[in-house]
Specification:
It is a single chain. With about 250 residues, this protein is α/β, with parallel strands linked by helices. The protein has eleven helices and 14 strands. It has a single domain, classed as Aldolase class I (TIM Barrel, Alpha-Beta Barrel), CATH 3.20.20. An eight-stranded parallel barrel has the order 1-4-5-6-7-10-11-12, surrounded by six helices. Strands 13-14 form a two-stranded antiparallel sheet. It is globular. The relative contact order is 0.16.
Length: about 250
């Protein structure tokens, strides 16, 4: 039986693990390989890794780091950052990654969704939409770490991505990123209405109760978090953590 997935989201910059607030001021929090090793021991449902430098700097994916992470991981991995071609996606899959997260490249060229899905399978193609509230209502998709507005309506693009062969949608709230005050249900609810695809939400988790609220409302859904799984306590000491089996059972 399908169950909700609870997914740590790790951000990579200059080969280090960082955390942001509203996509700004990345704070170094450790070595990504060590984090993967710790999450291995905690029976994590899935791990999402995003290189936040690759697209901004126009870099190729860091295949060496991706391979090192994949070799250490004993859980399903999703990687995003700098993927612009079918060939790059295939190379990353060859290193042991199960899912490719696509954002800027498919916003510019939506047909890339179909091209990669045809080659590697739709279930492995994840479309990530980084979304910000508009000043006078509604939402807009942003790229380049929340710096570039696209004018794209996220809800319309979700529908397009499904038609083009995406296997999953990730909705990431820029406004809630790192704030740890709960998810944006206005965004989540409307996004969920647009598609029958698997969906994961990211941005805002400050407690397991925040995750439970999403699961209670939307049942079979991916609930991702960054700060919640790398910080502990009011002073945000760096401590890799994840719900125990007993804690997860209470969430479901």
């Amino acid at each position: 039986m399908l169950k909700p997935r609870i997914i740590p989201s790790l951000l990579i910059q200059d080969n280090g693990l960082v955390k942001t607030v509203n996509f700004k001021n990345p704070k170094y929090v450790g070595d990504p390989i060590n984090a993967v090793k710790i999450f291995n021991e905690k029976s994590v449902d899935e791990l999402a890794i995003f290189d936040i430098d690759a697209t901004v700097k126009g870099n190729e994916p860091n295949y060496n780091l991706i391979e090192r992470i994949a070799n250490q991981s004993r859980m399903p991995l999703c990687y995003g950052g700098g993927v612009k071609t079918v060939e790059q996606a295939q190379r990353i899959f060859g290193l042991g990654i199960e899912k490719i997260a696509l954002s800027s490249a498919v916003l510019q060229n939506p047909q890339l969704i179909t091209a990669i899905a045809d080659r590697v399978g739709a279930q492995s193609v994840i479309v990530v939409l980084d979304v910000k509230k508009k000043m006078f209502g509604g939402y807009e998709v942003y790229t380049h770490n929340g710096k570039k507005g696209t004018g794209i309506n996220p809800f319309q693009f979700i529908q397009e991505a499904q038609k083009l062969g995406a296997g999953e949608i990730v909705i990431n709230s820029i406004d809630q990123d790192g704030v740890m005050k709960g998810y944006d249900f206005g965004l989540i609810d409307k996004a969920r209405e647009q598609t029958s695809l698997p969906m994961t939400v990211l941005g805002g988790a400050g407690s397991l109760e925040d995750i439970k609220k999403v699961i209670d409302k939307h049942k079979i859904i991916g609930v991702a978090a960054g700060s919640l799984f790398v910080f502990k306590g009011v002073y945000k000491a760096v401590l890799i953590n994840y719900p125990t089996k007993e804690e997860k059972e209470k969430l479901f």
